[in-house]
Write a structure and sequence with these properties.
The complex is a heterodimer of chains A (about 110) and B (about 120).
Chain A: E1 4-7, E2 10-14, E3 19-25, E4 32-38, E5 45-51, E6 56-59, E7 62-67, E8 72-77, E9 86-92, E10 103-104, E11 108-113
Parallel strand pairs in A: 2-11
Antiparallel strand pairs in A: 1-3, 3-8, 4-5, 4-9, 6-7, 7-8, 9-10, 9-11
Chain B: E1 5-7, E2 10-13, E3 19-24, E4 31-37, E5 44-50, E6 53-56, E7 65-68, E8 75-79, E9 88-95, E10 105-106, E11 110-114
Parallel strand pairs in B: 2-11
Antiparallel strand pairs in B: 1-3, 3-8, 4-5, 4-9, 5-6, 7-8, 9-10, 9-11
Classes of the chains: A mainly beta (about 110), B mainly beta (about 120).
Chain lengths: ~110, ~120
Amino acid sequence: GENVEQHPSTLSVQEGDSAVIKCTYSDSASNYFPWYKQELGKRPQLIIDIRSNVGEKKDQRIAVTLNKTAKHFSLHITETQPEDSAVYFCAASRGGTSYGKLTFGQGTILTVHP
Amino acid sequence: EAEVAQSPRYKITEKSQAVAFWCDPISGHATLYWYRQILGQGPELLVQFQDESVVDDSQLPKDRFSAERLKGVDSTLKIQPAELGDSAMYLCASSSAEDLNEKLFFGSGTQLSVL
């Protein structure tokens, strides 16, 4: 089955700095890669996703890049703010009718210091 | 915006007791998922339904866990008997297989504590 590795496990940055979280996956058939943000005790919230026919996608301060050859994808957050502090999870699936059958990474605790 | 509804929000039970969680997916969504999230880890898929049929329950501990979606709408996940290691957040999500650009959204979850 799919295995998703996520690094780093914790990330501490100053407000205004950029943050980068990286994930690798093992299943070459995976082609859907969402990122979720989760605050303590709350549901994971989808913040951005990318499908394998796209190499990069941006939404305001958030961007995701995908390298299918190397089987890795990354989340980039620019101009970080204290409210960006949360746990971030990457995930992968084969997409199509099974895009919701996600394998998650272990999570990255992001702390943004004012 | 439509949401996946789950109840109860919190559940405290004693070891060896039975417990059940309920999920009402977004209207019209044929695919329903139950995930379990242990504190400090990412969610793990337990079971996937397509309408009323189980598509994948390979990660469901079938000796104590059961899931049903009798009319292909809402779903119930049951644990009997509960064990200490079952303490976790149980998340439900739904999706529409007809829209390949759809996103997967989670319900608020049921936080289970087994004492």
